[in-house]
Amino acid sequence: MAIFSKRSKNNLKGIHPNLVKVMNEAIKNTPIDFTITDGIRTTEQQKELYAKGRTNPGKIVTNADGVRNKSNHQPKADGYGYAVDLYPYYNGSVQVNDDIRLRTIASHILNTAKSLGIRIEWGGHWKFRDYPHFELK
Q1: How far apart are CA 77 and CA 46, in angstroms?
Q2: Burial level of 123, CB count in 10 A (0-12/13-18/19+)?
Q3: What digits encode the pLDDT tens for the residues 8-62?
Q4: What is the distance of C-alpha 46 from the center of its chain?
Q5: What is the DSSP code string of the chain?
């Protein structure tokens, strides 16, 4: 049975309780261990991510600029973030380039959410693919 690391637990702080419930349940019997790499983001953090591939080096990773188009990682009016990013964890480290295992984890998380009656969405189903991203609907 996999359990969340301190890092994952910290990244779940401030995330909506329903999404936390899904993640906490999913990790218990996940077919592939995973780690939560992103939870709540400030406006400044979101703006920095938005700049990647635009005004800063790197590839584009988000279409949410953090101001006009807010990310679900940013706190809503109720104070909670509604999104997390995660990656497979094996061989002693986070694996950011393993979409095959990430798809397996995503299927498991979506099934877990469904069994709990909590509606979530996976970024891997979007036109702009965001495989590590999960959010409440």
Answers
A1: 17
A2: middle
A3: 999 999 999 999 999 999 999 999 999 999 999 999 999 999 999 999 999 998 9
A4: 14
A5: -----HHHHHHHTTB-HHHHHHHHHHHHT-SS-EEEEE----HHHHHHHHHBTTTBSS----S--SSSS--TTS--TTS-B-EEEEEEEETTEE-TT-HHHHHHHHHHHHHHHHHHT--EEEGGGSSS--TTEEEE-
Query: CA–CA distance from 29 to each of 48, 79, 123 (Å)?
Result: 35, 30, 22
How long, in residues, is the chain? 137
- List the one residue out of 128, 117, 7 whose CA is nearest residue 136: 117
Distances in Å between the Cα of 127 and the Cα atoms of 5, 42, 89 are 31, 25, 26
* AA identity, residue 5: S
CB 28 within 8 A of CB 2: yes
